[in-house]
């Protein structure tokens, strides 16, 4: 593993136990300049994950609790008349940060949810015709509870497509849960967490990701996987070209994490499930039969031939 990334992973591991795969995907998203949607039940560490990542990187962290009465201006900021200065001034919103936790994002009305679209795609906000660029690095970590559906507004497909990954933390194993009790008995280890790298290092690593080589065979493999999702009988909408680009960037980021300057099939296979599942829209009859997008993802990975070395 890349030495700088290992520092961050090990540091988060002091607080989050037994979830190395989830931490890895968070770091992939950060390096690929993507965003994450956690779709999981409360109390399993989603907020602590985002907080620990921000602390390990030494960057600014903001949290927005999404509620039905939250307005777009509460997210992006607003202009107000400053009587002292006799002019309009801009009051920044919590969006102007490095890591933004959008907690229970599906509890906000669609108008407020959509206030994140521009910032997630273009890393800028536009308020009353004035555009403000956000500071890098920038990562949105959104959460939603799949159990409590009353009073929620499902994210539209266009917004889901802006998330690089949809992840689940899941319950810990028995051994890990015992370790959590043991480590947290005296004090919360989060409060002793210190930054292990700085934001300039993260930006440099993001630039290194762009230099990772990806062969024509690997690009063709991504193309075949994506196109296969569109041709499945039970699929209404398969993966978009935006998804193809996301999978390519994520596989390049994972290659860098494992200290390689080239992509291998393992990288693509690792990032494809969390990048693909939330972008697949099933037909109504398939939904009624209980079919899940994750099954389509597994089928596609099994059906498409993996390129072997020396084919190109």
From the spread of the alpha carbons, the general shape counts as globular
The total number of structural domains is 2
Give me the CATH fold name of the largest domain: Rossmann fold
Helix coverage percent: 40-55%
Low-confidence stretches: none
Give the structural class. Answer: alpha/beta
Radius of gyration: 20 Å
CATH class of the largest domain: Alpha Beta
SSE series: HHEHEHEEEHHEEEHEHHHEHHEHH
Most strands sheet: 5 strands, parallel
Mean pLDDT across all amino acids: 92
Q: Can you tell me the CATH superfamily of the largest domain?
A: P-loop containing nucleotide triphosphate hydrolases
Summed up:
Belongs to the MoxR family. The protein is an alpha/beta fold and 312 residues long. 43% of the residues lie in helices and 15% in strands.
Care to describe what's here?
- Keywords: ATP-binding, Nucleotide-binding.
- It comes from Halonatronomonas betaini.
- This is MoxR family ATPase.
- Pfam families: AAA_3, AAA_lid_2.
- The chain folds into 2 domains: 200 residues, Rossmann fold (3-Layer(aba) Sandwich), CATH 3.40.50; 94 residues, Helicase, Ruva Protein, domain 3.
- The strands form 4 sheets. Strands 2-5-8-1-9 form a 5-stranded parallel beta sheet. Strands 3-4 form a two-stranded antiparallel sheet. A two-stranded antiparallel sheet has the order 6-7.
- Helix content is 43%, strand content 15%.
- The protein is globular.
- Helix 9 crosses helix 11.
- The protein is of the alpha/beta class.
- It is built from 14 helices and 11 strands.
């Amino acid at each position: 593993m890349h030495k700088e990334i290992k520092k961050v992973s090990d540091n988060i591991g002091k607080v989050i136990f037994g979830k190395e795969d989830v931490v890895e995907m968070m770091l992939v998203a950060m390096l690929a300049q993507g965003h994450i949607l956690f779709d999981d039940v409360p109390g399993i560490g989603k907020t602590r994950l985002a907080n620990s990542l921000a602390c390990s990187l030494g960057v600014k962290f903001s949290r927005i609790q999404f509620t039905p009465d939250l307005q777009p201006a509460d997210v992006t900021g607003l202009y107000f008349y400053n009587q002292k200065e006799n002019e309009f001034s801009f009051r920044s919103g919590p969006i102007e940060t490095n890591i933004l936790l959008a907690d229970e994002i599906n509890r906000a009305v669609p108008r407020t949810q959509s206030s994140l679209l521009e910032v997630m795609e273009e890393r800028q906000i536009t308020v009353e015709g004035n555009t403000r660029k956000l500071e890098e690095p920038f990562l949105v970590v959104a959460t939603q509870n799949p159990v409590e559906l009353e009073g929620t507004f499902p994210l539209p497909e266009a917004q889901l497509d802006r998330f690089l990954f949809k992840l689940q933390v899941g319950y810990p194993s028995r051994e890990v849960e015992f370790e959590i009790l043991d480590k947290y008995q005296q004090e919360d280890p989060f409060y002793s967490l210190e930054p292990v790298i700085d934001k300039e290092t993260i930006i440099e690593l993001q630039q290194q990701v762009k230099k990772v080589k990806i062969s024509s065979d690997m690009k063709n493999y991504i193309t075949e996987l994506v196109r296969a999702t569109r041709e499945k009988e039970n699929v209404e909408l398969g993966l978009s070209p935006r998804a193809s680009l996301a999978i390519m960037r994520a596989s390049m980021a994972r290659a860098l994490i494992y200290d390689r300057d080239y992509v291998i099939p393992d990288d693509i296979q690792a990032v494809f499930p969390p990048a693909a599942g939330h972008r697949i829209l099933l037909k109504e009859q398939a939904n009624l039969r209980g079919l899940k997008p994750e099954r389509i993802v597994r089928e596609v990975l099994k059906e498409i031939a993996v390129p072997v070395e020396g084919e190109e």
